[in-house]
């Protein structure tokens, strides 16, 4: 009868696993869902507004018109405000999914993917709006989603029900 060495079949002791320091992203993702969401929303708002300010600096007009109205200037801070409002709804969705669903990360990723794709449509439906402005609006949606969705999805993947 052969004896199998326990060192080959058992995982590393807890002390050796704890010795590896977690990176800043790992520490953030282990926070409560609402905290991860809050950081992601603020970061998304700041980066999206920064993108819009860079576009303004490069001469892209921020005049946009919808529904037959006169074109109006998108104000400085308008991108950040929109991201704060919409991404906060995304955090609320994440909280509800974490509470009531077995696989919240999968549902959240699918839902936000569809919503991000749908958010790309309105910029191209605007009338009397320069093509460069339409592209900036569409890319701004992608920037916000790229910053807000991944950390929330990673955090939701840790939820065990």
Short descriptors:
single chain, 161 residues, mainly alpha, two-stranded antiparallel ribbon, 8 helices, 2 strands, 68% helix, disordered N terminus
Protein model, in words:
The protein is an all-alpha fold and 161 residues long. The protein has one domain (28-66, 73-157). It contains eight helices and two strands; from the N terminus they run ααααββαααα. It has a two-stranded antiparallel ribbon. β1 (63-64) and β2 (72-73) form a beta hairpin. α4 packs antiparallel against α5 (78-100). The model is unreliable at 1-21 (pLDDT under 50). The chain crosses the membrane at residues 33-54, 74-98, 105-125, 131-152. Keywords: Membrane, Transmembrane, Transmembrane helix. Pfam families: DUF6069 (PF19545).
Brief summary:
This protein has 161 residues and is an all-alpha fold. The protein has eight helices and two strands; from the N terminus they run ααααββαααα. The radius of gyration is 22 Å and the shape is elongated.
